[in-house]
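Spend some time on the protein that follows and explain the fold to me:
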Amino acid sequence: MSDLTKLSANELSAELTKGSVSAVEVTKAHLDRINSLDKTVQSFLHVDDEGALKQAQLVDVSRKEKKKVSSLAGVPLALKDVLTQKGIPTTCGSKILEGWIPPYDSTVVTKLKNTGIIILGKTNMDEFAMGSSTENSAYFSTKNPWDLTKIPGGSSGGSSAAVSAFFAPLAIGTDTGGSIRQPAAVTGIVGAKPSYGGVSRFGLVAFASSLDQAGPFARTVLDCAMLHEVMAGHDPLDSTSINQSVPEVVKAAQLQDVKGMKIGIIKELGGQGWQSGVLNRFNEAVELLTSLGAQVKEISIPHSLYALATYYLIAPSEASSNLARFDGMRYGLRVDDGNLSAEEVMNKTRQKGFGKEVKRRIMIGTYALSSGYYDAYYAQAQKVRALIAQDLNNAFKDVDVLISPTSPTTAWGLGERVNDPMAMYLADLATLPPSLAGIPAMSVPIGLADEDKLPVGLQIVAPFMNDDRMYRVAGAVEAALKTKWNGLLIEQIPNLVGVK
């Protein structure tokens, strides 16, 4: 494996700035690795070799001409296939958008291009971000680089797998109910969901508009923070964008100090039904934080017990509305033999274009919003959502951040939960409360479970627009563990993915 693919984004930035390596060389190294190994991991839906190299050439020319460039200029990135990129296929992991080429860039992509970050391609995902395993993709299932028989999490499993397998030092995912944090946890990397409104949703194909938020993946906390600062900020094109300065997350990540911080353990997120190896690593992380000078105490978030039911009423309801635009009339797939009525075209197009999980959620959402059931289901769910947010806001009167395991278990086997939706949904137990409240949360690796030697993540939750607090804790934990959580051990990867 090329040495360049071993480096973190911060390390690559330093080498690129010194001129000891070119952006083209860095990009080629990562593309070569993708092209030789991703046929096994299957993290990418589309690799843009030509476009990535052109981007890299432009960065090299700018540096050669002594033009001012960002520190991350020339660093490669993998982009979840739910964000539009002009001229590049955007499918959202669905057959209904197969072959669709967006005519514009999302705001996040515009920021990446302006920074000079090299977009290598679009990563696989659960269809329209609905799932926790990336098995709901209409194209193929991505595999976890730690164990190719395991899931990489979801819905951003393609992005998490790409970073874990050293295909890119950075990636972008989206998090609706945990779809950045959970895949980060099960693939042994860092992933953050910014405060809702902290990153523009313009050009992000909507699943649940009041919950969706794009965020960064990386192999180190500092790398994650660097990408967070690039992609965040106010956007007048997004009515939900927050007109506030971006929290100083890079500075916070570099502090590596939690002395005097008050940290709350969420009482309801643990115990019976949670994997013992996950709880063991979590308890060790609590002890570690205490030894670093943090004041740790248990905090109750009583209404978090209803987060799962609340989320799976609100998110499908919003999805049933957002996905109504995919009707075979305007763009994407169209099923029509020339003799069908408009209603028949819509019916057959949606029947063929949408997968099983998407249809399930559309039906749940449509039912919850229907006349006679709106007040009983959707309206009640919104009331409970407000109570969950209230519980969390009250907790932050006593503590600076909250912590829990990111997921109740490590990565499960491919196919193990495909026919058991409830078991799949339970993977998001810990990540749902912060999503419903719109507050920032992230996952940082804290070790391997005793039973299966698979990664375990620590979830860190902060108050709204105080994203820097969670990076401060994550940076301290990472530094104290004295390890770089680069997914697999370098030497293991080629053998594990079947390349000698």
Observations:
- Residues 23-41 form the longest helix (19 residues).
- The first strand starts at residue 44 and ends at 47.
- The mean pLDDT is 94.
- Residues 40 and 497 are 6 Å apart (CA to CA).
